[in-house]
Amino acid sequence: MTLPVAMRLMNERAPADALGRRLSDLRISVIDRCNFRCPYCMPADQYAHDHAFLRARERLSFDEIERLARIFADLGVRKLRLTGGEPLLRRDLSELVARLAAIDGVEDLALTSNGALLPRHAQALRDAGLRRITLSLDSLDPDIYRRMAGGRGEVGQVLDAIEAAERTGFGTLKINCVVLRGVNEDGVPELAGHFRGSGHVLRFIEYMDVGTLNGWRADRVVPGAELRARIHARWPLEPLPRRALSETASRWRYADGKGELGFVDSVSAPFCGNCTRARLSADGKLYTCLFARNGHDLRGPLRAGESDEALRARIAGLWSLRGDRYSERRAELRAAGVVEHVEMFKIGG
Ligand code: SAM
Ligand code: SF4
Ligand code: SF4
Description:
Blueprint: E1 25-29, H1 62-75, E2 79-83, H2 93-101, E3 108-113, H3 118-128, E4 132-136, H4 142-148, H5 155-167, E5 174-179, H6 188-195, E6 201-206, H7 224-234, E7 237-240, E8 250-254, E9 260-264, E10 277-280, E11 285-287, E12 296-297, H8 299-303, H9 308-320, H10 330-335, H11 344-347
Parallel strand pairs: 1-2, 1-10, 2-3, 3-4, 4-5, 5-6, 6-9
Antiparallel strand pairs: 7-8, 8-9, 10-11, 11-12
Helix pairs in contact: 1-2, 1-9, 2-3, 3-5
Bound molecules: S-adenosylmethionine (SAM) and iron/sulfur cluster (SF4) (2 copies).
């Protein structure tokens, strides 16, 4: 595995979709459960303790995930991200990390987590070959953070997770912050100030209409440009070139050299044209868009004994039919009543 990710050339062997976008990234959700209930993802009133999450036998096993990941890598996928739900709730995740890190062609293996369980797993993940971690942190204010985690998480847990990752040698972390109008937007400068000079890359993500249950409203979205202007007024920012076309975040640096920031402006400035990401849900469905309504079942054929070759052809065929560009068509599709999407905790970010 070659790390860190440098500028990656488009893999000419990878299948292209109907809009010419070549498959290059796979996000693997290892579990649909979560220890938090962020209102923008998994609102507590919709997901009570007795909610019917997947049972263990319904989830892909590590053998099945590894097999599919090899097939995806064979097709040209170079980047894998483990996500969820909360991926650290999946028992022995480091065993899966070790298997995925050993796959030929995988250049980058990353994890997205809310951090609560990271301190107890950081060393095992690192030893298994994980090199990159993204942590979610929506506010430094304890009350606002708690609200953004649906009352199930404390800001101190994420700060401990950051420390644990630093101690374990993870180096630069990405820190994701979803910004909701009227909830955590005023804490943005404080967050920026906290991570300036830390070596970590804070990324602001626009609130998206993923799933159907988070009560998304356009007026709750804070455009990235507005946040940039606020930060720029205090600490001037300069744009940086994208490292790879498929990168979701635009990159900015502090003019005084105090580090880098990212902005995922998926609502105000969609980037479907360069979207090369496939998503695999914990129960083995392939989603070709974060906003897809349905996934394509891979677990059935896998468990029915389909060969690697047939699975490869199946996945390539599904990808070649892909015409998704929801974010670019959001206004038009929502006006037409297309608002049913898979929940984000089922397929990860
Ligand atoms: N539980 C882990 C976490 O929170 O980092 C991983 C899964 S979570 C679905 C992945 C990312 O999606 C998180 O950074 C989260 O903030 C982001 N996310 C969830 N719902 C979102 C929404 N409605 N709009 C924008 N980002 C969202
Ligand atoms: Fe859980 Fe992550 Fe969704 Fe929050 S964003 S509810 S931590 S899966
Ligand atoms: Fe990719 Fe779908 Fe997001 Fe567009 S809306 S960037 S196609 S996941």
